[in-house]
Specification:
The complex is a heterodimer of chains A (130) and B (66). Chain A is mainly alpha-helical and 130 residues long. Chain A contains 6 helices and no strands. Chain A has one domain. In chain A, 71% of the residues lie in helices and 0% in strands. The relative contact order of chain B is 0.07. The chains are: A mainly alpha (130), B mainly alpha (66). At the A-B interface, α2, α3, α4 and α6 of A face α1, α2 and α3 of B.
């Protein structure tokens, strides 16, 4: 991607993150703020194809993917256990917190929410680009 | 020891494991490669790209919308 386009994308991403940071969790505004980039990235990731296959060692890649997969599976299991213990969809269980409940002080409001928005949008941009 | 304490400790252990995996991958130790190379390999297939995008979407919804 050309440098001016990258700069424009970075500025647009930060502006979007700044506006999205103002939305409160568990509101329609927050859901819409997440849904818009999700829609764009999902379409991009289905339509576009990376230009070349990586030259990484397949055996090492599989071993690494298995290790990361184990971390993801354990995290997902913890989330499911915590989620199943909640009294309602939008009511957290203090005894069995999900990851989002534990990170609430960072993700609910303030500069850390803005930083998280920026990181998430950057990751989406990296996934959706060629 | 409460369930909350155990779950928190488990998340911390997972975070430490993730950092250790990435450091080992970057140093090419334990027959591991950096996380980015795995992602690049997964992105080659359309299904892999879709799975990655859905995981990213879930993370955003979970941490930023709810």
């Amino acid at each position: 991607m050309r440098r001016p386009v990258r700069w424009l994308a970075a500025i647009a991403g930060r502006a979007y993150a700044a506006v999205a940071t103002l939305s409160r969790p568990l509101t329609a505004a927050a859901a819409a703020a997440v849904a818009i980039p999700v829609g764009i990235v999902l379409v991009q990731s289905v339509r576009r194809r990376p230009p070349t296959a990586p030259a990484a060692d397949t055996r090492l890649c599989r071993r690494t993917a298995a290790a990361w997969g184990a971390v993801v599976v354990v995290a997902a299991a913890l989330e499911l256990v915590a989620f199943s213990r909640q009294p309602a969809y939008n009511v957290a269980s203090p005894g069995f917190p999900t990851l989002s409940v534990l990170l609430d002080p960072l993700t609910e409001v303030g500069p850390t929410r803005f930083v998280l928005w920026c990181c998430w949008l950057w990751a989406g941009w990296a996934l959706g680009r060629r | 020891m409460t369930a909350r304490w155990m779950i928190t400790a488990a998340y911390v252990a997972l975070a430490v494991s993730a950092v250790a995996l990435q450091l080992a991958g970057r140093a090419r130790r334990l027959c591991l490669v950096p996380f980015g190379e795995v992602i690049a390999a997964v992105r080659v297939s359309p299904v892999g790209r879709l799975v990655l995008a859905l995981g990213w979407a879930w993370l955003g919804w979970h941490l930023l919308a709810r």
